[in-house]
Structures are given as C-alpha cells and as structure tokens.
Design brief:
This is CBM20 domain-containing protein. The protein is α+β, with helices and mostly antiparallel strands. Helices cover 55% and strands 7% of the residues. The protein contains 34 helices and eleven strands. Strands 1, 2, 3, 4, 5, 6, 7, 8 and 9 form a nine-stranded mixed β-sheet that branches. A two-stranded parallel ribbon has the order 10-11. Helix 4 runs antiparallel to helix 5 and helix 27 crosses helix 30. The longest helix has 29 residues. It is elongated, with a radius of gyration of 55 Å.
Length: 740
C-alpha cells in the first residue's frame, strides 16, 4: 500500500498544555489506535502564536483515517493513576483528508476537566495558517499552497479572510526578499479581495504595485488555470495603479497579453492615465510588435486618454500609424475635447494641432465657434473676444462665405456689447479677404441698431460721453468698408443721427476731444455737424452755462462755472474749431449796436472773456477769430477813452459802478494784446483818480445848474421848474452815495 506524508496544524485553547500534552490520536496504528499518544504536538512559535500547535511530519498509509485532538495526561507515580486521554468535543468526528497539511481548530466539549480550556474559533488572535502557507511557498509547491489556502476558505472562512486581507497583502508586497511564487500567491489573495470588495476597488497610493507586476513576467495561463480569473483581476488592478502613477512596469502586460487577455479588454480599466512624450516613447516598442488590429485598439485607447491637443498629437506624431480609420478616431477625439470649450481655449488648442492635420478638423472648430455665437445671451470676456477674432483670421480653418455671413449675423444679434463692438473689425478682416454678401446691408443695419440700443441713453457728461465716442469709433471702423456701398453707409448715418437726438448736449460735447482721434474725415464731419446743430439751438449769450459748455468741449468736466478756474487749455484743433463756432454764434446772435452797450456787456462778462482771451494750447485760429479780435479792440478802445478822458459821462458812471480791482483786472487783459507799452493800460490808481475827478467836477456842475434855475427860471416864468431842481438834487444824492 502506498504511503503519504502528513503534518497536522491546530489552534488549541490557551494554556491547555498545563493540563497535559497535546496529541493527535486516531484509529490507525500510526495514531495509537485511540489508546496511545503516538503523534505529539509542539509549539513552533510559542511567543507570537501561543495557541498554534504542530506535529512532526508523519508517514501514513493511504486510505480513510479517523482522528481527533486530545490531551494526554501522564500517570502520577505519587497517586498511581492510570494514563488518561482527554478528547476534544466530538470524539472520532474528524476524517483525514487527502491534503499533506491538515489545518484544524480544537472542538470545545463538555468534559468537566476541559471546561475552563475554551477556544473561540471565530476570534483567534494569533491565527497562523495563512502566514504558514505563505512562508513555506517554494518554486515547487505553489499550486499546492494555493489549494491549501482555498481549503482554508472552506473550513475556516472568516478567520482566513481576516488574516489574508488587504493589510496582509500590502505588508508582504513591500518585502523585497519575497520570491516570485510568493508574489503570485499575494496576487491570488488580491484577486479574492477584489472579488469580495467589488470591481471598483482601487489600491491605495502607498501600495508598491511594481513588485507584484514583475511576478507576471513569462506568465502562462496553463500554469495556474484554476485561479487565472483571480490573477487577471489582480493584474488589472495592479496595472491600473501602476499606470496612474506614470510608472512603466505595467508594460509587462503587452508581453503576456495573448496568454491572459487576447481581446485587450484590460485597456478599459486604464483610465485617467497621464503621459508625456517620453512615456509614449517607452510604450512605442511594445505597440510595434502587436498585430495591426490590436494596435488600433491601443491607439484608440491612447486617444481617449488625451485631454488636450498637445497630448493627442503626441500620440499622432510618435506612433506614426496612419489610415482612414485612425484619422477618424483622432477627429472624433478632437470634437470631444473642444465640445464645451470657449474661444480662448479653442485658439490655444488649434495652435497645438499639426498643420497637416488642421484640414481634417477645421469643420469641427467652425461648428463649435458658430455654436458659441448662437447664444445671444452668452457672456463674452475680453480674452474670448480677442481669440474669436484670431480664429476668424485662421486660414487653415477654411472659413467659407456662408460661415462668415452666418457669423456676422449671429454677432449682430448678440446682447453682449463688447462682442457687438468687434463686428466692424471682423467685417474688416473678411473684406481684406475679398468677402461680400448681399445680406450684409440688413445685417449691418440690425447690428448698428442693436449696438446703439445696448449702449443705452445717458444724459450726464461725466462718463457717458464714452458712449458717444464708441458710436463714432464704430462708424470710423466701418466706413472704409462701406463707403463704396453708399446705401448701407447712409442707413448707418441716419441711425446714428437719430440716436444722437436722445443724447444730452453735454454727452455729445464731452466727446469732442476724443473725436479728434477718429481717422475718417467723413465721420468727423458727421460729429461736427451734430454738435454745431446742438450749439445753434442752445448758445444765446455769454453766461456761466456757455463757459461750462466750453470746458466740457475741452474735456474739463465741471458742474457749474467755477470762481477759481481762470485758465482754459484747448487740447486739439477740433475743440478749437467748436469754440470758434461758438464765437461765430455769439457774433451772429448779438443785437448790440451801440458802442457803449458793447463796452458794458464785455465788462459784465469779464471772467468769460478773460478765460477765452488767455486760453492756451491750440489757440491759433481762436486768436485770429474776427469776433474775438472785435472783443479785444473793444476793450482796448474803452481803455483809450478812459486814459484820454474822452469817455461819455453816462458810460463812465456806469463803468465806475464796478470796483477799482474788478476794472483793473479787466483792463489787465490788454497785456496779452500787442500793445506798445505797459503804460498804455490804465492802472488801478488811475481809475481811483478818475473816480475822484468825475465826482468833484460833476458835483460842481450840478450846483451851478441849480443856481441858474433858481435865479433865472422862477416858477412864474418856467413851468415845472421845481421838478427840474428836485431831479438835480436827486442826482447829487446818488453821486455822493456812489462816492461813499
């Protein structure tokens, strides 16, 4: 009869050795035939695993054997007791299996002497069977050890799972001295763990997947056919982990893929893998040895991993596999990448595409751009608008006439003011490329109307003049494009004029300084025409409001005529032209013909004329303006009359109603005129003297006149003489009050 070797492993109750010697006893001679303690147990790991007992290896005949664990209590010489054997719970209940290693747990029983020796088979803290199996795996017994582990899962399931869990796998995977067979065993454990957890299980970041992956080198599927499915699950998990860390050990799978996964289904598990050009270069040799059908699968997988154009076309350039099918895969991926992208990213992505491939995907980009434009309420940032214009200028996008007219139409309907602003620029870009469409007239009109509507109506001159400026800037951009299509241009002019009617005069005049930057004279003329039309309506005479208009024209914003402002800087020729036009209006609307009235009017508006006559900046035409020169001459003439004392007495009295300081400041304006000498200008002292002289002389004449009336014009001779005398006396009173 053939024999076989058997070793018993068992967990016994703690401290049971105090009662006697643990043994294995059975119904065969080798086991003492239920009478003799032949097979004794010992503890190989007394400190770490105190409840674990093991027998020596024994040779037994093949065939059925019944056995049990027991405690051999030796005889006591003192009390002359017989040898006693205390059996575990169910005596003779165990049948020896065909395994070479038997893994058991003591069965608790009702024996009174054994009651205090109890073992909880569900909570053995030093459970060692998994450790023992793993420790004694060799190149020759891997299959046997896997079978032993699978048997443990049957007879001691919960404990075996607990002590072969993920922590055990992680700990042992870090052991650099482990053998290849032990690593394969760990992969089997990992497969069981994944099976229990679910297919979505992922290894922790501190797991060293590279060590276990290397154990699959030269793996053959007929080596361990019973656990191939477990090993495949483990390998998928390992390569996913390894690839996610941008390591290259997982490339091993390409060398054994025919053995374990000829359909390349493992690629589905490799998602969110990041790679660069160097990484692709490492993959390339593995792909080159694969048949074309599976090579397409790998390339398709790599394409799906790409999140941007740079990585996508690294695959294109490095793998160098070209056919219609692969090209279409790239096109589909490009479409997916740009699906929700804005124009700034589109521009960036398009620039990363090789020029030889841009033709293939131009349609996808154009469709995406048109889709963005279709939403009139879309928010457009400055960078997005800039990128949109760049995209329209990309010849490799193959823009056709239909695309352009649709784009312009969609832009003309946008509710975003900043997007509406670039309409003329895009139109200009396309005209450069000889584009024109008959629908353009309607599109341009609709654009300009909506653009003006989005600008809104503002009736203050603080910041709102910028809206007026913007309107004329848009006309400036578009004029070179439309001046040959006069109907379209005239329509836009009509729309602009209508819009200007609802803007306040201050908003319009406040734009004057900036309008100088407009390039097209036709557009400038339109602004000048509108501004002058407003000035014709509002300018009547010199006053604070008129001065305020002039300051607004010169881009000096004030709320009312300021007492402290005494200088005016005219920034450019257009502003000067507007001020000259105001002088023209004042001249044409002036009704003063009498010189004395003219002198008094100028004197009353001294501050206004002082600022105008002393203006700086662009003043050449203003200085030569006939009305300004007329004012200068009038001031000089009055100065002469006062110096020569040939002034009308009534006018003089009216002039002297103003203070000496006020009059002195008024005549000091003459210093800016081309007078021969400073002495030609009347001084404040001379005004004081003049005031004294006129008062004394005038008083004497009034006294003489009263005396004449009283002596030669008595009441009987002259009717109403008393009224004349009373009037003269009133004038004397007024004269004395003026002197005071």
């Amino acid at each position: 009869m053939e024999n076989r070797k058997v070793t018993f492993h068992v967990h016994l109750p703690t401290n049971i050795e105090k009662l006697g010697n643990p043994i294995v006893i059975g119904d065969k001679e080798k086991f003492g035939e239920w009478k003799k303690p032949v097979v004794k147990l010992h503890r190989p790991y007394i400190i770490d695993h105190p409840t674990y007992w093991k027998s020596d290896t024994i040779i037994i005949p093949k065939g059925p054997i019944r056995y049990a664990y027991a405690i051999h209590v030796p005889s006591s010489l003192l009390f002359l007791e017989d040898i006693r054997i205390l059996y575990e719970g169910d005596v003779k209940s165990r049948t020896l299996g065909h395994q070479n290693n038997i893994y058991d747990i003591w069965i608790n029983g009702n024996n009174s002497e054994l009651k205090k020796y109890y073992i909880d088979k569900n909570n053995i803290l030093d459970y060692v069977f998994v450790d023992y199996i793993y420790k004694y795996i060799t190149i020759n017994n891997l299959k046997e050890k896997i079978l032993e582990y699978q048997n443990l899962l049957i007879i001691h399931k919960d404990l075996t799972i607990k002590f072969s869990n993920y922590d055990f796998i992680l700990k042992e995977s870090l052991n650099d001295e482990s053998t290849k067979e032990q690593q394969i065993f760990l992969c089997v454990l990992l497969g069981y763990h994944i099976l229990r957890e679910s297919n979505s299980f992922k290894l922790s970041s501190n797991f060293h997947s590279s060590i276990l992956i290397k154990s699959f080198i030269n793996y053959q599927k007929n080596f361990l056919p019973e656990v191939n499915h477990l090993l495949f699950m483990a390998l998928l998990c390992l390569i996913q982990h390894n690839a996610s860390q941008s390591r290259s050990e997982w490339f091993i799978i390409f060398t054994i893929v025919k053995e374990i996964d000829p359909e390349y289904s493992f690629l589905k598990n490799l998602q969110n893998i990041k790679y660069d050009e160097k990484y692709l270069e490492k993959i390339k040799p593995h792909i080159n040895t694969i048949d074309f059908e599976n090579k397409i699968k790998i390339i398709q997988w790599l394409i799906q991993l790409c999140q941007d154009m740079e990585s996508l076309f690294q695959v294109w350039n490095i793998l160098l596999v070209r056919n219609k099918q692969i090209t279409q895969y790239f096109i589909y991926r490009v479409q997916e990448i740009i699906l929700n992208k804005d124009t700034d990213i589109l521009m960036n992505q398009f620039s990363k595409i090789p020029k030889e491939f841009q033709d293939h995907i131009s349609l996808n980009f154009r469709k995406r751009i048109l889709l963005l434009l279709k939403n009139p309420d879309r928010d457009w940032k400055d960078q997005n608008i800039l990128s949109l214009r760049e995209l329209f200028n990309q010849d490799n996008l193959k823009w056709n006439d239909d695309d352009i007219i649709i784009s312009l139409e969609l832009i003309s309907k946008s509710h975003n003011l900043e997007l509406l602003k670039i309409f003329p620029k895009i139109l200009n870009d396309r005209f450069i490329k000889n584009f024109f469409d008959k629908k353009l007239e309607i599109i341009c009109k609709n654009w300009f109307k909506l653009f003006l509507f989005k600008l809104g109506i503002k009736n203050t001159c603080s910041d709102e003049s910028k809206y007026v400026i913007t309107i004329f800037q848009q006309l400036d951009y578009i004029y070179p494009l439309l001046n040959q299509w006069i109907d379209i241009w005239n329509d836009l002019l009509t729309i602009a004029k209508d819009k200007m009617r609802v803007y306040s005069e201050s908003c319009i005049l406040g734009a004057t300084s900036s309008i100088m930057e407009i390039k097209e004279e036709e557009v400038k003329r339109l602004f000048i025409e509108i501004s002058k039309e407003r000035l014709n309506e509002t300018v009547q005479r010199v006053n604070d409001q008129l001065m305020n208009k002039i300051f607004i024209i010169c881009d000096r914003k004030i709320d009312s005529f300021p007492e402290t402002i005494e200088t005016l800087d005219i920034p450019n020729m257009l502003c000067e032209d507007m001020i000259c036009y105001i002088m023209f209006i004042l001249k044409t609307k002036s009704t003063i013909s009498d010189p004395s009235e003219q002198h008094l009017s100028i004197l009353k508006s001294h501050k206004f004329w002082n600022i105008i006559l002393n203006a700086t900046g662009n003043v050449k035409r203003l200085k030569s303006n006939s009305y300004v020169q007329h004012i200068q001459m009038s001031i000089a003439e009055l100065n002469r009359l006062l110096l020569e004392k040939t002034i009308d007495i009534k006018l003089l009295n009216q002039i002297l109603e103003y203070s000496d300081e006020y009059l002195s400041q008024h005549f000091s304006m003459l210093k800016t005129f081309n007078m021969k000498a400073m002495n030609d200008i009347i001084t404040q002292d001379e005004i004081v003297v003049l005031r004294i002289i006129i008062n004394e002389d005038y008083a004497n004449r009034l006294d003489q006149l009263i005396k004449f009336y009283e002596e030669f014009c008595s009441a009987p001779k002259v009717i109403n003489v008393n009224d004349y005398i009373q009037d003269i006396q009133q004038q004397k009173f007024e004269q004395r009050r003026s002197l005071l």
